[in-house]
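wait is this the right file?? whatever heres the structure
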């Protein structure tokens, strides 16, 4: 998880680091490695399966990051109601 926290801090300096995102990315990476190893055990792992699995997880992560960006709007959510 420290690797993902560092990557989020380095590449996404505009927003604060959301711990939920770091945990999600770590879990998804572990899940992806498990799925690819499971395919390798069955001797069915090839470049197409790798591309589809990694591409699918990247697409899901992009969609979840877009949702997180919409939920946390810097400057708007930080303001108090009476200001």
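ok assuming it is, sequence goes like this
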């Amino acid at each position: 998880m420290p690797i993902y926290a560092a990557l989020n801090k380095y590449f996404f300096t505009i927003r604060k680091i959301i711990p939920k995102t770091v945990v999600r990315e770590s879990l998804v990476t572990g899940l992806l490695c498990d799925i690819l190893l499971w395919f390798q055990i069955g001797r069915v792992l090839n470049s197409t399966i790798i591309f589809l699995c990694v591409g699918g997880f990247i697409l899901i992560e992009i969609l979840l990051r877009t949702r997180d960006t919409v939920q946390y709007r810097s400057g708007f959510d930080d303001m108090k109601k009476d200001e």
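Residues 20 and 49 are 28 Å apart (CA to CA). so i think its the right one actually
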